[in-house]
Design goal:
six-stranded mixed β-sheet, Rossmann fold, six-stranded parallel β-sheet, mainly beta, Immunoglobulin-like, single chain
């Protein structure tokens, strides 16, 4: 037995581990072998909590049991036992009991495989940023493959519920029994990034803008029931949440691995987390800041995608959670630029997965296997960070366009191997290829919770070139728990950890190659797998932003993007606004490897093109629009009609008006004017937008607005009255001057409204009036608008109370018996009462004056003359006469 060093000679970490070991012995039943066995059943998070918990304190445990039986000693009413998930090999239950009962009865049960803390609370993982679909080439996928938008395919957003009235989700929200009752803005953002319809503005358009969206509550950290996924035809589920850094394979990870196998079309996509500077507190990588800090054990699942974040130039930020997984596997598998860190990254990966599913389904008539979609996503990614693969960016940055091209070119394979057997596939590589890349993915059976290594079936991928006898193995990282090792570049070797392997070959000679897949260790009867591959040609340049569907803004910074495989070459960047007849220089000798350039758009409106000149070759972009943003407003909102208007843009003659249809904005007319009056009966939609027509092309639309919520009624936006000293100041703001002939300020004289001031043919939307001839009590004003067609519109009346040195105002006076009598006080007065006396001097009513605005209810006083006597501190103060009719 190894001797324990004296405590004074231990490091700080050794002291903690020693203390941990001693405490574990104290709280776990006797017998060294039994102690170790029970210790292995506990998740690291739960183990830490138990050390801080009293023996009689109750805890809710999530327990993984062998098989499908629920042992009687655990299924007791006092334990509040509940089965929450059952698979072929294991069952997950929750039990609430004291720590003492847990150690004496629950933990020793032979049926218990693994125990976790059931009180872990999921949190949305959100950082504020900006959305740019061009970073991950989603914009070019939309432009080149407009027929694929996710129509008819359903995604589930597992977290809180989004705002289902959001117009970007219009007509495409699926109500299910899975949703949370809590609505959150985070869920709305995720849903919009995945499948927003672009109705609010162009940045409201998600990756799969035609998909159907649904929601599932993340109160449970386990997958939904298989029947739910099947009932609602859910093929992608997005998980943009975490519970804090956890570094082990939990029952939730095993459940998600099982869910992917049980639902062969369903792809689960998780955010990596925004805890990139933290360190794991348990496991192999404990105490290593910046590594192994994924925020949840469920993200350790093998048959999912865990997505980290990048900035808009595909650099992984410090706060994006990094790998490796607890057992050294590659995590995250993919990175993307989202609006809010890794949450948005996962959302864009989810939306892109829907596009791939749509493309495959339209071509082959059914949804693709989830492992195939995963293989395509990882293989089509752009290499960022360390070459090939690393623990920060995984297999690279999401490239939706490459993924769509993989399906269109049918560059994918599928097969099955048994233990010890191999299968080969021949691929012909043409001349002029700069790089070949192939990726294998298989859905690996779930491992036992808390397994030291999660891989069950081990397959091996090799690239062979039979003509020369050469072979190439996949890229593998060094999982040794030290920063120097974890940051080492990948090396070609056999992979015995991951169920994803990737092999590449630079500058391959033309010829027939083979992908060889070997079942090195297959514990099941057979193991299915999928391979995706792509060829990157040499000396190719491609514009990626702007495409014909994108917009460049005048007099504003824009980022133009391209892809280039020219080695060591520089480019000259130019633009043209006359269909390529003349070109103006933007920048010479550009570094093509950067892939982007920040361009301040010129101060003009029109259509334009970009040109990159590389040596003697020229590459011209799509034609795109160049213009300013349009600002809109509501002039009036009258009972029968409403007026909308917008700013005119230089050199634009026509504008297209859109209204919200069943799902999307729909164009319904073109006008050369800058305002439009619409009949409400013929135009029931509340939402409208305007786009300039530039050389017969649509420029960027305005923000879509609800004309009923813009603070404008029938012409009048606001009418306010304010008493300043002994003068009433009245401010009027109109929504529009269209068709306005006269504006009249009127004042009520007690019986009728009389004219005080009048403006003819006003020239400004804002105007002011004043009144110095005030009467004691109520001064009531209104605005009268006379239109050119004879229509008269009145504002709501505004009232100013004028005390003129008095302390109290009583109105109306005279008053009808069927109306209340109002009593206003200049200030709230303490110890003040109102006594109402009839003509005989009898007190018929009394009221404490404890507010500045009180009333005597209608019908309380009979007809006749009354004296209202206000008494302060028991002494008579003020007497007023009031007549009731």
């Amino acid at each position: 037995m190894r001797a324990v060093p004296p405590l004074k000679h231990c490091s700080g970490r050794q002291k903690i581990l020693l203390l941990f070991s001693v405490l574990s012995i104290l709280v776990i039943p006797s017998g060294l072998a039994q102690q170790k066995e029970h210790q292995r059943k506990l998740s690291p998070v739960l183990n830490t909590r138990l050390l801080k918990t009293g023996m009689q304190e109750k805890i809710k445990f999530r327990i993984t049991l062998k098989g499908t039986a629920f042992p009687g000693e655990l299924n007791k009413p006092k334990y509040e036992a509940r089965k929450i998930r059952a698979d072929v090999n294991f069952t997950i239950v929750t039990i609430t009991c004291t720590k003492e009962d847990f150690y004496n009865t629950v933990l020793p049960s032979a049926a218990v495989l693994f125990v976790e803390d059931a009180s872990r609370v999921p949190k949305e993982e959100m950082l504020v940023g900006n959305l740019d679909l061009a970073t991950n080439k989603i914009n070019i996928a939309h432009s080149r493959f407009p027929q694929y938008n996710g129509d008819g395919i359903t995604v589930s957003v597992k977290e809180n519920k989004p705002d289902t009235t959001d117009i970007d989700l219009e007509g495409r929200w699926l109500t299910t029994g899975l949703s949370s009752g809590v609505v959150s803005s985070h869920a709305s953002i995720m849903s919009t990034m995945i499948g927003g319809g672009g109705n609010s503005w162009y940045l409201g358009k998600g990756a799969a803008w035609g998909s159907t969206l649904s929601s599932s509550d993340f109160a449970s950290l386990l997958p939904d029931a298989n029947t739910a996924y099947q009932q609602y035809n859910i093929s992608v589920q997005n998980h943009s949440y975490g519970v804090g850094v956890e570094s082990y394979y939990g029952s939730d990870a095993a459940a998600y691995d099982g869910s992917a196998i049980d639902n062969s079309y369903l792809l689960h996509i998780f955010s990596a987390g925004n805890s990139g500077t933290d360190a794991a507190t348990t496991g192999t990588y404990a105490g290593l800041p910046g590594f192994a800090n994924l925020t949840g054990s469920f993200k350790m699942a093998k048959n999912i995608i865990t997505a980290g974040s990048t900035d808009s130039f595909s650099s992984v930020p410090v706060l994006s959670s990094k790998g490796p997984a607890y057992d050294g596997r590659v995590k995250p598998e993919l990175v993307a630029f989202g609006e809010d860190g890794s949450s948005g990254a996962a959302a864009l990966v989810s939306g892109t997965a829907l596009l791939l599913q749509d493309a495959y389904k339209q071509r082959y008539g059914s949804l693709p296997p989830n492992a195939l979609v995963k293989a395509i996503l990882l293989n089509s990614a752009d290499d960022v960070g360390n070459a090939e693969v690393d623990y920060a960016s995984g297999f690279g940055a999401l490239n939706a366009y490459n993924g769509m091209q993989t399906i269109q070119a049918t560059r994918f394979l599928g097969g099955t191997v048994t233990n010890g057997a191999a299968q080969t596939f021949t691929v012909s590589i043409p001349a002029g290829i700069k790089k070949l890349k192939g990726t294998i993915v298989w859905n690996d059976p779930p491992a036992s919770p808390n397994a030291a290594k999660s891989l069950v079936n081990d397959l091996d991928l090799e690239l062979l070139y039979p003509s020369s006898g050469q072979s190439w193995r996949p890229w593998v990282l060094n999982p040794f728990p030290h920063p120097d090792s974890l940051q080492q570049p990948a090396a070609r070797k056999r992979d015995s950890l991951n169920n994803v392997e990737q092999v590449t070959l630079d500058n391959p000679v033309a010829g027939d190659y083979q992908f060889k897949v070997t079942g090195s260790k297959v514990t099941t009867p057979s193991q299915a797998f999928y391979i995706a591959y792509q060829f990157d040609s040499a000396d190719v340049f491609e514009w990626q932003f702007p495409t014909t569907n994108d917009f460049i803004f005048s007099s504003a910074p824009n980022v133009v993007r391209w892809k280039s495989s020219f080695s060591g070459a520089a480019g000259n960047l130019e633009f043209s606004i006359d269909d390529g007849k003349n070109w103006q220089t933007i920048q010479n000798t550009l570094d093509l490897t950067a892939g982007h350039y920040k361009w301040d758009g010129p101060s003009l409106t029109g259509t334009a093109q970009l040109r990159m000149t590389i040596g003697s070759k020229q590459f011209i972009s799509d034609t795109f629009t160049l213009s300013q943003r349009i600002s809109t407003g509501v002039g009036f909102n009258c009972p029968d009609s409403f007026l909308i208007y917008w700013n005119k843009i230089q050199d634009v003659n026509d504008y297209r008006i859109f209204k919200l249809g069943n799902k999307y904005l729909e164009p319904f007319l073109v006008t050369a004017d800058s305002l439009l009056i619409l009949d409400k009966h013929a135009n029931p939609s509340l939402y409208y937008a305007v786009a300039p027509l530039i050389n017969n092309r649509e420029g960027v639309k305005s923000y879509t607005f609800n004309y009923t919520t813009q603070g404008v009624e029938c012409y009048i936006r606001s009418f306010l009255a304010l008493l300043v000293d002994n003068t009433v100041q009245l401010d009027l703001t109109l929504g529009t001057l269209y068709n306005v002939n006269r504006i009249t300020l009127e004042k009520n004289d007690g019986a009728n409204y009389i004219q005080l001031q009048q403006l003819t043919s006003p020239a400004d939307l804002k105007m002011s009036f004043s009144d110095t001839r005030l009467k004691k009590g109520l001064n009531i004003y209104r605005i009268k608008l006379a239109l050119n067609n004879g229509t008269v519109i009145y504002s709501q009346p505004e009232t100013v109370y004028y005390f003129s040195g008095s302390v109290f105002i009583v109105y109306p006076n005279p008053a009808r018996q069927d109306q209340p009598i109002h009593i206003l006080s200049a200030d709230t007065l303490q110890n003040t009462k109102l006594q109402v006396l009839n003509t005989l001097g009898q007190k018929v009513y009394e009221l404490a004056i404890d507010d500045e605005n009180l009333q005597i209810p209608a019908g309380r006083l009979s007809k006749g003359l009354y004296l209202f006597r206000f008494v302060r501190n028991g002494e008579k103060d003020i007497v007023l006469k009031v007549l009731i009719l």
